[in-house]
Amino acid sequence: MKKLLLLLVVLVMLLIPAVSCAEVINVQIDGSHGKLAAVIQKPEGNNKCDVVMLLHGFASNKEFGLMKLIADELEKNNTASIRFDFNGHGQSEGRFEDMTVLNELEDARKVFDYVRNLDYVDADSISIAGHSQGGVVASMLAGELGADKISKVVLFAPAAVLRDDAIRGTAFGVDYDASNPPETVKIFGNLNLGRNYILTAQKLKIYETAEKFTGPVCLVHGTGDRLVPYTYSERYNKIYANSELHLLDGVDHGFNSHWEEAAKIAVDFLMR
User: Fold this and answer.
1) Are 49 and 77 in contact (CB under 8 A)?
2) Where are the domains of the chain?
3) Domain 21-160+214-271 homologous superfamily, CATH
4) For the chain, is the Cβ count within 10 Å smaller at the N or the C terminus?
5) So what's the pLDDT on residue 22?
6) DSSP 97
7) pLDDT, tens digit, for every residue of 147-171?
8) Cα separation of 198 and 163, whole Å?
C-alpha cells in the first residue's frame, strides 16, 4: 500500500508544471534622451550570474519576439538578460525623429554601466546581442569597450547598410537629396526619420569600430534578407579575428518563422 501511495505522489509531481525560478524586473535607466524602459530576467536570488544585453532593431522595441525568446532560453540556462527600448522607441522617452545610431550607442553604453553595477551580475561576464540596427550598435559598443569588458557578441542581420543608404539618399524606399537632407523623411507612413540621423549615418565608422573587438562573435543572417543583404555579415566575418557566420537559407530580415532556429544558434554560442 505504501509503495502504491508513493507511486501516486511521484506521478502527481510529474504532472505539476515546473515553477519558474526566475525574476522579471521592470526598471528605468537614464539614457541619452530621457528614461529608457527595460526588462531584466534573472535567476532567483542574488548569486552572481552572467548577463546578456539584448538590443532591438530600427523602429522595433524590446518586445520583439526573437529577443523575448532568447531571454527565455537564457533564463533556462541560469543566465540573466536585459532588453530595453532605445530612445524614441517603445516605452522609452525621447522622439523617434531625434534618434541616431550614435545616441543609441550612448543608450547602450548607459545600460551597460547600469548592468555591471548590479550586485548579482558578474561584471566579467557581460555579453551583447543585437538585431539589425541594434546589431550595428552592439558591434560598435563591443569595439569601444573591448574584450576585457564584453565577453561575447551575437549579431543578427547587422544593418551596416544604413551608412550606404544614407550616402545614396534612400530610406526604406523613400529617396531624398543626400547632400542636403530634409529636416525629416517620412517612412512607414507615420514615422519621421530626422535629418541628423542621416548626416550622422553618412559618417559612421561601423566596421572600423567593430573590428577592435577581439572576443568571440557569432553572426546570424538570412540569405533571403531584402533589407540588409547577407554580404554585410560576410564583411563583418572578415574583419573579426574570432567569429563564426551562420547563413540561414531563404530566411528574411526579421527571421520570421525561424526565431527558434536563430535563437538556438545564439544561445548555444553564448553558453559554449
Assistant:
1) no
2) 21-160+214-271
3) Alpha/Beta hydrolase fold, catalytic domain (3.40.50.1820)
4) N
5) 79
6) G
7) 999 999 999 999 999 999 999 999 9
8) 8
